């Protein structure tokens, strides 16, 4: 057990008191509830070098830990200075040495959420629109705020969309976020992470320009939130369910270009399921544009035709969700508040 997992009861700089650890230790960090000097409750993420000694290359593992903590710290400062209202706010960061001969623990403190989209969705009536549209709108705003500053989250998923009661949702966990010209230290395009969220191209062998790839990935991941809040399934999971076995990414030698026609057919099935749900027709069309299995076809068709602006911009979809929110309010549905 490393020092990052023995922080309960410590008092940190600024008067923060570390409470109970949250769940079991994360693969790269330990998580805690903390209390501020004015009684405010928050969330702490801590990292140390303990796991580096279990790695085959200890020095490389140490470099990864240092790079990741600096990377996330710098992003927290950048998002705060830019007043990104839909990104989880960092409150403090620092380091502490529990014992004289131990390695320091680096920590980051964030505002504390009430839960995430998964927990909130479980409380919602299947035909309710206001919460779903509001949640999608706020997620799109958050990603747009990041993209305007040259940031790509690259790992948007329901567990990273955090709920703050009447304040709505904010995007959390910036550990895989990249900046223009600077990839995230914890993100490897060849290792897309959990395949139930990853865009289909990253499950095969397809690669294109790095900047485009990051934005195309964010676009797909945002679109997958639409299928999640209306169908309670991620787009990639739904695709793989309908994909014929020989063209599944787990089959050795299957290329993306060979599998693409079958991915398109599987995607048509998902789109039809969404049409039969409570999703507004305009949002179904947006989903079709956002989550096309081929990243080269993603985006609004007018942007493609005009050949200016970013085809991977979410601006048009923020506007679309604004209109859907207004329409919902006009129908007198309670609880609909854009932010």
Task: Please characterize this protein's 3D structure.
The protein is α+β, with helices and mostly antiparallel strands and 339 residues long. It has 2 domains: 3-111, Phosphorylase Kinase, domain 1, CATH 3.30.200; 115-330, Transferase(Phosphotransferase), domain 1, CATH 1.10.510.10. 38% of the residues lie in helices and 13% in strands. It contains 9 helices and 10 strands. It has helices at residues 58-81, 117-121, 130-148, 210-231, 235-242, 256-275, 281-290, 301-306, 315-330; strands at 17-21, 30-35, 41-47, 90-96, 105-111, 115-116, 151-152, 161-163, 169-171, 178-179. The strands form 3 sheets. A 5-stranded antiparallel beta sheet has the order 1-2-3-5-4, with helices on one face. A 3-stranded antiparallel beta sheet has the order 6-8-9. A two-stranded antiparallel sheet has the order 7-10. Strand 2 and strand 3 form a beta hairpin. The longest helix is centred in the N-terminal third of the chain and has 24 residues, at 58-81. The protein is globular, with a radius of gyration of 21 Å. Residues 333-339 have low confidence and may be disordered.
Radius of gyration from the CA trace?
21 Å
**Got a strand count?**
10
Look at the structure and give the CATH class of the largest domain. Answer: Mainly Alpha
Order of the strands making up the biggest sheet:
1-2-3-5-4
The CATH topology of the largest domain comes to: Transferase(Phosphotransferase), domain 1
Helix content: 25-40%
Shape: globular
TL;DR?
With 339 residues, this protein is of the alpha+beta class. It has nine helices and ten strands. The protein folds into two domains: 3-111, Phosphorylase Kinase, domain 1, CATH 3.30.200; 115-330, Transferase(Phosphotransferase), domain 1, CATH 1.10.510.
């Amino acid at each position: 057990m490393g020092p990052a997992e023995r922080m309960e009861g410590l008092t940190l700089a600024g008067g923060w008191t570390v409470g109970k650890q949250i769940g079991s230790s994360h693969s790269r960090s330990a998580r805690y509830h903390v209390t501020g000097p004015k009684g405010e409750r928050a969330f702490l993420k801590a990292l140390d070098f303990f796991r580096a000694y279990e790695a085959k290359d200890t020095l490389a593992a140490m470099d990864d830990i240092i790079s990741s903590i600096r990377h996330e710290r710098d992003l927290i400062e950048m998002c705060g200075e830019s007043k990104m209202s839909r990104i989880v706010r960092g409150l403090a960061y620092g380091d502490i040495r529990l014992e004289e001969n131990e390695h320091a623990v680096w920590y980051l403190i964030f505002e504390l959420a009430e839960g995430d989209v998964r927990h909130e969705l479980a409380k919602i009536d299947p035909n309710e629109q206001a919460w779903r549209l509001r949640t999608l709108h706020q997620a799109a705003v958050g990603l747009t705020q990041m993209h305007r500053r040259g940031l790509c989250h690259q790992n948007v998923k329901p567990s990273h969309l955090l709920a703050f009661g009447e304040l709505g949702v904010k995007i959390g966990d910036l550990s895989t976020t990249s900046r223009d010209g600077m990839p995230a230290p914890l993100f490897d395009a060849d290792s897309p992470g959990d395949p139930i969220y990853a865009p289909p191209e990253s499950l095969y062998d397809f690669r294109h320009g790095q900047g485009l790839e990051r934005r195309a990935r964010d676009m797909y991941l945002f679109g997958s939130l639409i299928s999640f809040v209306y169908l309670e399934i991620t787009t990639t999971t739904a695709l793989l369910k309908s994909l014929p076995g020989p063209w599944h990414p787990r089959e050795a030698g299957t290329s993306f270009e060979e599998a693409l026609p079958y991915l398109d057919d599987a995607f048509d099935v998902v789109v039809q399921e969404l049409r039969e749900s409570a999703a507004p027709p305009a949002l179904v069309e947006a989903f079709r544009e956002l989550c096309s299995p081929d990243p080269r076809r993603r985006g609004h068709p007018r942007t493609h035709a005009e050949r200016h602006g970013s085809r991977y911009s979410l601006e048009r979809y923020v506007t679309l969700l604004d209109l859907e929110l207004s329409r919902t309010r006009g129908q007198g549905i309670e609880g609909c508040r854009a932010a």
